[in-house]
Amino acid sequence: MRNTLGLTFTPLHPVFAAECFGVDISEAISPAIAAAIDDAMDQYAVLVFRRGTPLTTEQQIRFTKSLGELEPPYTKIEAEEGARLDNPLLSDISNLAPGDRILSREDRKRLFTLGNQMWHSDSSYKTVPAKYSALCAHVIPPTGSDTEFADMRAAWDMLDPGTKDQIKDLVTEHSRIFSKGALGIQFTEKELRDFAPVRQPLVRTHPHTGRHSLFLSSHAGRIVGRPLPEALMLLRELTEHATQREFVYRHKWRVGDLVMWDNRVTMHRGRPYEDMKYPRDLRRTTLTCGAPAMEYSQALQ
User: CB–CB of 119/267 below 8 Å?
Assistant: First the structure.
C-alpha cells in the first residue's frame, strides 16, 4: 500500500515484516517520512530497505538518529587486535579483525559472536533496553548467514488464557552472563560487574499500539521468585512456542540491505555459515528505549 508520502510497504510474511519502497535512506529524511516509518514499524516490527550498496557510517547514523536517540557506548568484546571500526556508535557484527582479516577460531570476539545464533533481543541485558536496531550488510558469504526474526506479539496472542494469566506479572533477570555463559564463555571480574543481571518484565505493552508481547531472550536466565529449574523450563517452553515457524520471518541478505527491527516486540538470531572461510560484515546502529522497561511496565498497571 502506498501512502500520501510515496512510501510503499510490501508484506514479507503473513504476520509481520515488510519491505519499504519510496525513500532514499542514504539522504536526510523529513520528520513526516520518519513518522511514517515509525507507524510502519508499529505495524510490521521489521522493515527491509534494499539498496544494492551499503550505507556509509555517516549515512547509517544519520538515518537511525532521525528515528530516535542512539544507545550510549557500553562494554563490548573486541578482537584480540582491537576494534575494527572507527566509530563507537557502530556495532561490528562480523567475523573480522582489524584489516578485515577473518578472526581466528579461538578469538574471544568470535566465540562471543557465536551467541548471536541464539534467539535474543538486543540490549535486553541493559536496564534501559533497545528500541530499534538497524543492521546494514557490507559483505555477505555465498551461503548461510540468514537472520531470522520472531514476532513476540503474535506469540503472546496465541497463548492460551491460563498461560497468559500465569505469566503476565512475572519479572525476569537478563544478562550476557546467562547467554554467553551457556556457551562456556568465561568472564573477567570487570565483565561480571558490567554484565550484572537486570530485571525486565516478561510481558510488555507497546506504548503506541497497546499490544502485549513476550519479552524473551537468550539473555533471560532467571525469573524472580521462582526456583531456577522451574524458571529455566518456563523460559524454554515460552521460547519454543514463540519461535514456531508461523511466527518467524527469515531474511536472506543481499549486499546493501538495511534491516530494521523493533526489539520491544521481536526476537532474532543469525544463522550459521562457514565463518572460518568466508567474511561476513554487517554493521549495526541501535536506538535506546529511553526508559527502563520495568518502570514503563509498572506505569501501565
Answer: yes
pTM of the model: 0.95
The per-residue pLDDT for range 216-252, each reduced to its tens digit, is: 999 999 999 999 999 999 999 999 999 999 999 999 9
- Which residues in 126-159 are b (16+ Cβ under 10 Å) and which e? bebbbbbbbbbbbbbbeeebebbbbbbbbbbeeb
Q: Which three cell numbers stand for residue 54?
A: 551499503
Strand ranges (E), the chain: 8-11, 18-21, 46-49, 91-94, 96-97, 101-102, 130-139, 147-151, 171-174, 198-201, 203-205, 212-214, 220-223, 248-251, 258-262, 266-270, 281-288
Measured CA to CA, the distance from residue 278 to residue 293 in angstroms comes to: 38
Rg, Å, the chain Cα set: 19
Are 283 and 125 contacting, i.e. CB atoms less than 8 angstroms apart?
no
Q: Residue 262 and residue 122: Cα distance in Å, rounded?
A: 9
* List of domains in the chain: 8-300 (3.60.130.10)
